[in-house]
Design a protein that fits this description.
Layout (H helix, E strand, L loop, with lengths): L4 H28 L4 H10 L17 H13 L3 H20 L2 H12 L5 E4 L15 E5 L2 E12 L6 E9 L2 E8 L5 E6 L10 E12 L3 E2 L5 H37 L1 E2 L2 E2 L4 H29 L5 H26 L10 H5 L1
Parallel strand pairs: 1-4
Antiparallel strand pairs: 2-3, 3-7, 4-5, 5-8, 6-7, 9-10
Length: 348
């Protein structure tokens, strides 16, 4: 699919921002495991954290999911942690956009688009991740409130978000989303995860202990939560695929340049057929993955989301990124295993 002029301008702007502001600090951010608020401010300025919002709130007017994938891919070429910011902001706001009533949207969306508040998505628990129906977090009705109790884990932006979309059980086999404010009494931040990769992304435990949530913060109808969570995947999986593809492209680009300059046995590495095969295979996988992402994202944008396509895109591109980064580490040999070069970070 040909990019629109607006997309070309946006991607050119993102590319320049990545080169000037993100790539130079990516290694340091990873090494320190530090959440970079300067990058957050940059993304707000560029409109990247608003892409999936309605146009009146600064969102992208045409094919927003596909545009989200393209921007995520471009950023991930240099820093996967920074690229993840776009995805979690879209994931966290999804229940509001697709289940919130007009009053809720008018109250909450300006906090995201104008007040520039990050939003978290609290679903995963110690005993329930992909098995969403097994969550134990409960919300019990008490007058004009729901009392929410539970422990959420692996929450991206968990300790830095100001709003959360929280999935809780309102009855047995009934899951419901609520919007919970960071300043709510009884809400606290637990363990901050030390991770192998994505070290510049904040991943935290969020504890809800007798948190009183106003009834008007319930999204949709009681019991809508599971379907909303599944629908969210149709949007987020192509974007995650775009992130994986960006990592793979960054690795291939660096390894290709290295192979052109590094000489062994009297000629450049790139002139050795075994190395050239690895570079060619990587390029082939990237192009195939891009086609899957495009189809999956555009199916969402046109109102015909495909769980099959979105799942295939995420699976294929994630596997491709793992293979490609592994191979590109091999192209650099021992250097690929050291922190002086970016390949080991991309591999992680």
């Amino acid at each position: 699919m040909e990019f629109t002029e607006e997309q070309k301008i946006l991607l050119s702007t993102v590319h320049r921002a990545v080169e000037e502001h993100i790539a130079p600090v990516a290694a340091e951010t990873d090494r320190e495991g530090r959440f970079n608020w300067d990058v957050v401010d940059l993304f707000w300025d560029l409109g990247l954290l608003q892409i999936m919002l309605p146009a009146q709130y600064g969102g992208w007017p045409e094919n927003p999911c596909y545009t989200l994938c393209l921007c995520t891919e471009e950023i991930a070429k240099a820093c996967a942690s920074s690229a993840l910011l776009l995805i979690i902001q879209a994931v966290g706001s999804f229940p509001i956009l697709h289940a919130g009533n007009d009053s809720q949207k008018q109250r909450l969306l300006p906090r995201i688009s104008q007040a520039r508040e990050l939003i978290g998505y609290l679903v995963t628990e110690p005993g329930a991740g992909s098995d969403v129906k097994s969550i134990s977090c409960k919300a019990e009705k008490s007058g004009p409130y729901y009392i929410v109790n539970g422990r959420k884990t692996f929450a991206t932006n968990g300790a830095v978000a100001r709003l959360y979309c929280v999935l809780a059980k309102t009855r047995d086999n009934e899951l419901t989303f609520f919007v919970v404010d960071r300043e709510s009494d009884g809400l606290s931040i637990g363990k901050i995860e030390e991770k192998c990769g994505f070290r510049g992304s904040n991943t935290a435990e969020v504890i809800l202990d007798e948190v009183r949530v106003p009834v008007e913060n319930l999204l949709g109808e009681p019991g809508d939560g599971f379907d909303l969570a599944m629908a969210d995947f149709n949007m987020s999986r192509p974007a995650v695929a775009g992130l994986a593809l960006g990592i793979a492209e960054g690795a291939l680009s660096y390894a290709t340049q290295y192979a052109k300059e590094r000489r062994a046995f009297g000629k450049a590495l790139v002139e050795h057929q075994a190395v050239l095969f690895m570079l060619a295979d990587a390029k082939m996988l990237i192009e195939a993955g891009r086609g899957l992402i495009e189809r999956a994202a555009l199916s969402f944008d046109t109102g015909n989301p495909s769980p099959e396509l979105s799942s295939m895109a995420k699976c294929f591109c994630s596997d491709a990124a793992m293979k490609i980064t592994t191979d590109m580490v091999q192209v650099l040999g021992g250097y690929g295993y050291t922190k002086d070069y970016p390949l080991e970070r991309m591999f992680r």
